[in-house]
Amino acid sequence: MDEQIKNSADAPLLEVNHLRKTFPLKKSITGKVLSELVAVEDVSFTLRPGETLGIVGESGCGKTTLGRTILKLYPANGGQILFDGKDITNYTKAQMRPIRTDMQIIFQDPYSSLPPRSTVGDILSEPVLVHGIVPKNEVKDYVMDLMEKCGLRDYYYERYPHEFSGGQRQRICIARALSVKPRLVVCDEPVSALDVSIQAQIINLLKDLQRSMNLSYLFISHDLSVVKFISDKIGVMYLGAMMEFGTKKDIFDNPLHPYTKALFSAIPNPNPDVKMQRIVLKGDIPSPANPPSGCRFHTRCPHATELCKQQKPEYRECEPGHFAACHYAGKV
Q1: In a domain, 261, yes or no
Q2: I want to staple 304 with a disulfide (CB 3.0 to 4.6 A). Which of 108, 296, 308, 319 is the partner?
Q3: What are the helix (H) ranges across 186-320?
Q4: Torsion angle defined by CA atoms of residues 177, 181, 187 and 188, in that order, rounded to the nearest 10 degrees
């Protein structure tokens, strides 16, 4: 019996296999897709209960699209999404409804993601009522308790979103996501619109809530310092594809992909006596509507060879639990 409980705890909560998401750019008169934008291409990873997976990369690399496709806000065009052992890839809206309480999202912009004509009490009570989380006569007490956990004062209950600062609004967004007792929360750059001091408060709040509620986070960000602080595992994306994936220690102590090394070289060092060796990538990110042949990164990689230009590298396990998509992973 104890062995069964242990195996259940070790089982992945979320498993993504070769996920693909495209958007049509041009269609024929009959509706046939003539050209498409490849936003997510062949992405695979696993996330266990209580873990945080940080997804990093430059703007436009497909991080947000990945998160929304996993939540079925966008339909996947290929691959497989397993949640708690169930294949939800082709679930309809009706089939997803019972699972919606287990999967929630914190949007990037706390200003536009809250309804301006609803009070905080209404915003937090509505999902609780719709999904029947607690009996109707207990909803207000439940919401008040949730507000306290998220650092919101009880007198905020009757106030409107425009009366709050950015950090307070983001706390409301976090409380709304947690109101239905989820198991997986996609955090889509939840602190990028906030001041640095407020960022620290929100990150610490997320970590405290994770410990108390055993939450799993898919934490999307372009700030590597924040990702290093909060994540257990890290995935590095470029032009819709996963370039490198591993534990936080593996990625920061031994980056294998040239793109990961270039990202890390851009992290500011607070020590003025340490001279940074910045790796400057030349050129712009290619268009996802017309990705380059071979390795997607070869147009900007300082170590690219003819092999990189012609042959797509295999996304392989270079070390136990440490994956990279590079012909010369760990050799350059």
Answers
A1: yes
A2: 308
A3: 196-213, 224-230, 248-253, 258-265, 306-310
A4: -40
Percentage of residues in the chain having pLDDT higher than 90? 62
pLDDT: is 109 or 235 the higher one?
Answer: 235
Q: How high is the mean pLDDT of the chain?
A: 89
Q: Which of 188, 305, 295, 291 is nearest to 243 (CA)?
A: 295
- For residues 160 and 180, give the distance between their C-alpha atoms in angstroms, rounded to a whole number: 21
Asked whether residue 222 is assigned to any structural domain, the reply reads yes
Whether 44 and 16 have beta carbons less than 8 Å apart is answered as yes
Looking at per-residue confidence, does 300 or 284 come out higher?
A: 300
The answer to whether residue 164 is domain-embedded is: yes
Do residue 182 and residue 94 come from a single domain?
yes
Contacts of 178 (CB under 8 A, 6+ apart): 104, 146, 149, 150, 185, 209, 213, 215
Would the pTM count as exceeding 0.70? Answer: yes
Edge-to-edge order in the sheet of strand 233-238: 103-106, 184-188, 216-220, 52-56, 233-238, 241-247, 322-325, 315-319
Task: Take residue 96 and report the two structure tokens written for it.
Answer: 């997803």
Exposed, middle or buried: residue 288 (CB in 10 Å: 0-12, 13-18, 19+)?
A: buried
pLDDT(289) > 90: no
Q: Report yes or no on 250 lying in a domain.
A: no
pLDDT tier at 330 (50, 70, 90 boundaries)? confident
Cα–Cα dist 290/279, whole Å: 25
Alpha-carbon span 101 to 181, nearest angstrom? 7
Q: What is the CATH number of the domain that holds 169?
A: 3.40.50.300
Over residues 16-37, the mean pLDDT reads 90
Query: What is the Cα gyration radius of the chain?
Result: 21
Residues 129 and 199 grouped into a single domain: yes
